[in-house]
Amino acid sequence: MSSRRKFIKKAALGSVALSAFSACGAQAAEAISANKTIPLKPVKKPVIISTWNHGLAANEAAWNALKIGNSGISAIETGLKISEADPKVRSVGYGGLPDREGKVTLDACIMDQNSDCGSVSFLQDIKHPISVARKVLEETPHVMLTGKGAQDFALAQGFKKENLLTAESEKAWKNWLEKSKYQPVINIENHDTISMLIIDADGNLSGGCTTSGAAWKMHGRVGDSPIIGAGLFLDNEVGGAAATGLGEAVIRTAGSAMVVELMRQGKSPNEACKIIVERIYNKHKNHKDMPYLQVGFIAVNKQGEYGGYSLRGGFNFAICDGENGNRMEKPDFKMTWKD
Ligand code: SD4
């Protein structure tokens, strides 16, 4: 090919790539819809979906990372680090609410289009567990490191120890100690675990989750978020799914893996999320005694169709795609908090 033709081809590819990225600009438009079944309509790739309101800022950072040519998992890492570093997000990373012993312990995982994955759980004093999870993926023959082993690995990789318990979170813990009743507050204040799914411009999937887990959990407790198949799963031939909510309920049903398997069988992302939420509902006959039981799923398939569903109302997610910008959506749910 002549160098002029090569140049024209490259320039044309460049404009395709740029136009795919033109819709999610620096300003995140926050258009919150009413709860609804998300219409089944493929959106223009790339697509980034993240749980909860803090997903907007994470999406924006991930979008900008993709725009300058980063891979899907680099974009996942960049996006999730925003929530991890934000002390106002009291359920992720720095500033996360501690366990009942006053220790902030973190869980995170990451997965790429080749089904390579990395995960850390029960990690203390390291601000960016998602980055450590990525190192597990890239630098070890393993998928998951936990506790002191995960921390030793992080330190060997150059991460620094930091105190993650902010004065606000310490105060909240001391207030909790007065009654010491374990009742994780999920969803009320709208800033829980962040789970993110990406389909890049070539249609390849990646995903990640990061969390400080359920507040006031027992020391050593690990939730669904670092568990591939529970808090996150994807198959590049089918689609991806991720969870937020009470980790024990998600683990019991292998939630995200099941959502992906249902999409493989032809269910839409909405239908697949709904079936698994209903399974969780049916497995918890005592849900009336569990006023804190909440689970929400997000899902996207290979065609760029996306959806979500939650057990109780209040769940929302941020979505950014190649034509409609960065916005919030509130998916349908099974029951209200009063039911
Ligand atoms: C956990 N799934 O540790 C997390 C908590 C969460 O929205 O997602 N809250 O159980």
What this model shows, in words?
With 339 residues, this protein is of the alpha+beta class. It has one domain (45-334): (Glycosyl)asparaginase (Glutamine Phosphoribosylpyrophosphate, subunit 1, domain 1). Helices cover 32% and strands 22% of the residues. It contains nine helices and 13 strands. It has helices at 3-20, 55-67, 72-85, 129-139, 147-156, 167-179, 247-252, 255-264, 269-283; strands spanning 47-51, 105-111, 117-124, 144-146, 194-199, 205-211, 232-235, 239-245, 295-301, 306-312, 317-321, 325-329, 333-335. The strands form two sheets. The protein has an eight-stranded mixed beta sheet with strand order 4-3-2-6-5-1-11-12. α3 runs antiparallel to α4 (129-139). Mean pLDDT is 88; it is low at 1-18 and 25-32. Bound molecules: N-hydroxy-L-asparagine. N-hydroxy-L-asparagine binds next to β8.
- First CA to last CA: what distance? 67 Å
Strand residue percentage: 15-25%
The SS-based structural class is alpha+beta
Q: Mind telling me the CATH class?
A: Alpha Beta
Give a quick set of tags describing it.
single chain, 339 residues, alpha+beta, Glutamine Phosphoribosylpyrophosphate, subunit 1, domain 1, eight-stranded mixed sheet, five-stranded mixed sheet, 9 helices, globular, disordered N terminus, binds N-hydroxy-L-asparagine
